[in-house]
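WARN retry 2 of 3 for item q-0093 after timeout on previous attempt; input resubmitted unchanged.
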Amino acid sequence: MRRLILAAAVIAPMLGHAAWAEDTVKIGYIDPLSGGGASVGEGGLKTFQYLADELNAKGGILGRKVEIVPFDNKSWPRKFGQ
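OK item q-0093 returned
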C-alpha cells in the first residue's frame, strides 16, 4: 500500500507540463536501504529497477526513459518537512 501511495504521489505531478520538459521520467523510491530493514528495501528497489528496465526496453513512457531514484529513509518514521 505504501508503494502505491508513493507511486501516485510521484506520477501525479508528471501530468503537468514542467515534468515533460525532461527526457527522463524519474520515479522516487523511498524505503530503508540500510540498517535492519535494508533487505526489504533492497528487494523492492531491485523490483522497481527491473520494471524500469522492462519499460525502457519497450520504449519507455511516451518515448522517455524511466529512471528509479532511490532514497534511504533509514527506517526513520519522521514526518516530511521535519
